[in-house]
Amino acid sequence: MVLHLSGYGLFYSSSHFQKTLRVKYVKQVGNYSSACRLPNLNPFHPSILEFVKDLGKLQCKGERYSFFINDLLEVKGQDIYSVQYRTIERPHGDDFKVVLSDATSLSNEAEPVNDENSANTGFLKKFWNALIGSRKSSSTGPFLGKATVKADFVRVDVATTSSWRTNSDVHMQVSPKEEVIARPVKPGGIPLDIALIMFDSTSAANFKRKMPNTLQYLTKNLNSILLEGETIVGDGTTAQLCAMLTGIAEKKQPEARRSESSSDTVDKWRWIFRDFKQKGYATLFSEDNSRFGSFNYRLHGFKDPPTDHFARPFWLEADKLLDNYCIGSRAAHNISLEYLLSFFRAYKSKPKFSLTTHADISHDDQNAIGYVDDDLKSILQTLENENFLANTLLIIFGDHGARFSDLRETIQGKLEERLPFMSITLPKWFIEKYPDLHSNLVHNSKVLTTPFDVYATLRHILSYPSYPAGEITTGESLFNKIDKESRTCENAGVEEHWCPCLNLEEISTDEPLIKELAEFVVTFMNNLMFKNSHLENLCHKLVLKKITGAFRDMPSEKMQFFDKTRRDGECDSCGLKFAGKSTNTLADDTLYQLQFVTSPNEGFYEASVKMKKGVPSLAGDVSRIDAYKDQPYCIAKKFPLLRKYCYCSQSPDIRS
Questions:
Q1: Which CATH number describes the domain made up of 24-37+502-567+578-654?
Q2: What share of the chain in percent tops pLDDT 70?
Q3: pLDDT for the residue 45
Q4: Between the N and C ends of the chain, which has fewer C-beta atoms within 10 Å?
């Protein structure tokens, strides 16, 4: 292997990261081993508090004139003289443009109020009214206009006499399609609606920090299961959604990169949307950030809409009006969530599959997702109150944690990037009818899992009771029990530099903390012996003589030195760039493995100590590695559990 040094870090000419003398890892120390030991991150660790800010409530300003619900467009307000609306449509075969229909004017159905000569009407307003003349239906007073519009997306432009500017707004709702309603539902599988709601750059820890009300509602009211070992399988949103929606890594898909001359659209990929549609489901896909679309930013996108209701044209048009997370007087995330709600209302008796993603609110600022907390809880309450969750598998998830921030320079930040939020909510009848599947899911919530497993789960729902083994190349259904003793990053489809599993990293025995922890264990051993006060006269008090080995649970070397991905011959993010070792923010919140010798018994011991917020506690039993022979003869029969600690004060040959 050849190392190439640059001013920006280390580039490696091989996909394998060479082990160096900087860090030494072991898979097993004594009898302590596991396939994947997951970190237990403190969301409020002191190292990240400087990055956490309370932004308060989102304030979207402006007057709202138009409303669009159940195919009814309604415009109302004061001093409106012109209203035009257009449907927002997708050009055939083009995922990067939007077209608007011809404008349709909306007439005023309200009773006119003519105060042209009123004493309260100022000279300038009278002049303006005269100037616009025949263009207005009523220069003052109320306006009420209605129209039936059978479309998902509309743009409305309202001109008023009170402003020189036209007030523009956009609306989205699901207008049910006859061909979708008539689509036959095929037998088999588990009859669940599927709703996936994603928030970009949202780690499990940040969801706990910024979404406490939603989190409480999920866990206390909906009995949702949090996947504590959910991790990422690549760089950025595309890698995660590719795994979740197709079960195949991007680099193994038909070429779709816009930078490659031989590439094509992503229509040839094996989309889960298509599987559910063939089953008879109504399908929806809405992604609120059109500029950085998961399958458009680097890729060619779709030639044909992948779902029955595809919101990309709407968000392309909405992007023209988006300002500080708002579209006019409304939060953009609320428009998205209400679109999902309208999907459930439009197809009440039809099985449904939906994916709704949100990037604008959370991609660039990990604090801004706090704006969503109460709104998401409110939508969940509405879905529950209208009985939609009674038949829905609901997955709320982050694609990954924050990727671009100072926080990511620490071990805590890197692990947060690799541990996105994921909750799974199941209806009560499912838990009662399929207790084994539910039990397996609960078990798997403590195991390393990936988006590949979510794909396998979705396919499992479609094929149940059979398992689609031939279609699952990576991952395992979350309804199957995953063996935590054999589940590793490698067999889960996670490359080493993304792997959050902890390894025992050898560290210096001269670190002051290591001496403190060893003394803590010896004190524990003595206290355990001398809880029986008469043993103080039988056994020697043990003293720490020397520390022979110390190990600390840390992520892999590749992860600690990883900086970012780069393009190589295989894919846009398959190349790796390494830099300096990340700041260790886990020292006071991780597990230590110690090997030490005590005096006067010359006993060789091994112990695991868990640090939490700087406070040590013993993890498991203290093991004695050497043979104690007849050292504990004086207490061996009466106190057999203390034999490995006790060194009798008198030697056996002078027993009384």
A1: 3.10.450.10
A2: 84
A3: 84
A4: C
